[in-house]
């Protein structure tokens, strides 16, 4: 099948590479000229394990193309997938400005039947709104179908997730259009769920909202475990053994971040509010996440006796989780901002990124970052931090406190090196 994917970001680029690998011919278009230039020069603008090889292979095979001329690509292809960003607006609602701009380009170019697949995460009702948008722009109703096909990949494992999804959700009002979209996934062994468009849009928000709920639940329980001197990792292991609950997404930490969970929880709350529904549970989920950093900074403060300009805190990790270069809504960044707000001296290191942050001195290695520090916080669970030389850390640090913000470290190794260990909900 010939396909045009609009947006060459984490989702568009990964999906383009995987569909090309499945044998389709894919035009991946983005209006960001620099991004497309880099892609055409063999340089992948994001860090995603396995993506570079897949892109290169399919470019060489003549199945994957990167272009900036959106209109031309829209004219040339009869299957169009929208994978542009849907960031949070001021009030938390999803800002559909990029989606609208793609729809506008589609309206300008559409002269024969097209299937328009909404891959971007959009609020319930957006498919219907998009249909009306095109009709209002004078496009004849028989010239298009809009199909919702939400994406569930995780950054860091995006290629694996796209080849091995738990399910493929296709929301369509025309069964023939749903079948066409299903045939795009030929070669992927996964359950396919065909629903109405609005239900598909809800499934995406419902999934992310549930994942966020699981995380805030375990993070709140971790606070109580802390108070009782119990270990949340052991509690989570036992709770997760119940198949109805499941063991995944129960790792307590300094909170969830990334470009999706915080944004999609906020967007669902806003979408509900527009229909006069108050999502009290989800508001609490966001609230727990919002205060999680403060809770553990208080713990740190009690261990080193102060959090002010005389405190030197080293932070390991800046990305919102390991194996990605994405810092959107990263709790690690929020933590550094909270520390600098208290005038602490902050030295930091991340294996992939060093974003400019006022008051943060970036170092070129993990060990360099801990030199003379009173305390170390591990804010992202990079493998490199798990396997570091704790004897050397102890030798370089002035103080002896290690706060494991992701519960990924081996406490015994740290204590053996003469350091004091504190985790999230761990005694
Ligand atoms: N990142 C994830 O892990 C993930 C997973 C599932 C779903 N989603 C959803 O997928 C969507 C895309 O997310 P992302 O992380 O890939 O975003 P991103 O910001 O990485 O990429 C979006 C791309 O779209 C391009 N773009 C914007 N407007 C355009 C236009 N009019 N024409 C051409 N290109 C345009 C931008 O230049 C950018 O390169 C969002 O709705 C997000 O919620 C993201
Ligand atoms: O047990 C856990 C699991 C995750 N996290 C944190 O939660 C955040 C989100 O992690 P994850 O969900 O793995 O990252 P994303 O790549 O943002 O993926 C989520 O958001 C995507 C965009 O919508 C969806 O497609 C995915 O299914 C959904 O998992 C990160 O800060 C993690 O550190 C924890 O603290 N504990």
TrEMBL record:
Keyword vocabulary terms for this entry: NAD, Oxidoreductase
Gene3D superfamilies: Cytochrome c1, transmembrane anchor, C-terminal, NAD(P)-binding Rossmann-like Domain
Binding site for NAD(+): 30, 35, 86, 121, 155, 263, 328
UniProt binding sites for substrate: 152-155, 204, 249-253, 257, 321
The organism's place on the tree of life at top rank: Bacteria
Statement: the UniProt record of this protein carries the keyword Oxidoreductase: yes
Entry annotated with the keyword Oxidoreductase: yes
Top-level class of the enzyme under EC nomenclature: oxidoreductase
Positions of the catalytic residues: 260 (nucleophile)
GO molecular function ontology, one term from the record: NAD binding
UDP-glucose/GDP-mannose dehydrogenase C-terminal domain mapped to chain residues: 314-411
GO biological process terms held by the UniProt record: polysaccharide biosynthetic process; UDP-glucuronate biosynthetic process
Pathway assigned in UniProt: Nucleotide-sugar biosynthesis; UDP-alpha-D-glucuronate biosynthesis; UDP-alpha-D-glucuronate from UDP-alpha-D-glucose: step 1/1
Catalytic activity: UDP-alpha-D-glucose + 2 NAD(+) + H2O = UDP-alpha-D-glucuronate + 2 NADH + 3 H(+)
E.C. number(s) listed in UniProt: 1.1.1.22
Family, per entry: Belongs to the UDP-glucose/GDP-mannose dehydrogenase family.
Protein name per the record: UDP-glucose 6-dehydrogenase
Organism: Paenibacillus nanensis
């Amino acid at each position: 099948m010939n396909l045009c994917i609009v947006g060459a970001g984490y989702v568009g680029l990964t999906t383009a590479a995987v569909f090309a690998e499945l044998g389709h011919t894919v035009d991946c278009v983005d209006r960001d000229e620099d991004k497309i230039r880099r892609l055409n020069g063999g340089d992948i603008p994001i860090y995603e394990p396995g993506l570079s090889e897949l892109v290169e292979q399919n470019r060489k095979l003549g199945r994957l193309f990167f272009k900036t001329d959106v209109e031309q690509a829209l004219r040339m292809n009869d299957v169009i997938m929208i994978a542009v960003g849907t960031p949070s607006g001021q009030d938390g609602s999803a800002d559909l400005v990029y989606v609208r701009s793609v729809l506008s380009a589609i309206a300008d170019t559409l002269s024969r039947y097209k299937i328009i697949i909404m891959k971007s995460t959009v609020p319930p009702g957006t498919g219907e709104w998009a249909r009306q948008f095109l009709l209002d722009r004078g496009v004849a109703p028989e010239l298009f179908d809009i199909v919702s096909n939400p994406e569930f990949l995780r950054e860091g494992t995006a290629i694996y997730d796209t080849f091995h999804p738990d399910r493929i959700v296709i929301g369509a009002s025309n069964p023939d259009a749903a079948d066409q979209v299903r045939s795009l996934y030929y070669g992927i062994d996964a359950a396919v769920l065909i629903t109405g468009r609005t239900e598909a849009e809800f499934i995406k928000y419902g999934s992310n909202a549930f994942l966020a709920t699981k995380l805030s639940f375990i993070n709140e329980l971790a606070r109580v475990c802390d108070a009782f001197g119990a270990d949340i990792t052991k509690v989570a292991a036992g709770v997760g053994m119940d198949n109805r609950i499941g063991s995944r997404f129960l790792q307590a930490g300094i909170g969830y971040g990334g470009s999706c969970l915080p944004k999609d929880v906020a967007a669902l709350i806003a979408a509900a509010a527009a229909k006069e529904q108050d999502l009290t549970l989800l508001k609490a989920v966001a609230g727990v996440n919002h205060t999680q950093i403060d809770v553990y900074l208080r713990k740190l403060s009690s261990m080193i006796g102060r959090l002010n300009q005389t405190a030197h805190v080293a932070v390991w990790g800046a990305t919102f989780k390991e194996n990605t270069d994405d810092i959107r809504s990263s709790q690690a960044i929020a933590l550094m901002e909270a520390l600098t707000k208290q005038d602490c001296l902050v030295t930091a290191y991340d294996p992939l990124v060093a974003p400019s942050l006022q008051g943060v001195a970036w170092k070129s290695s993990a060990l360099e970052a801990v030199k003379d520090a009173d305390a170390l916080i591990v804010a992202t669970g990079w493998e490199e931090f798990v396997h570091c030389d704790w004897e050397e850390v102890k030798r370089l640090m002035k103080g002896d406190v290690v706060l494991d913000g992701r519960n990924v470290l081996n406490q015994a190794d740290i204590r053996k090196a003469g350091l004091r260990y504190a985790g999230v909900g761990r005694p």
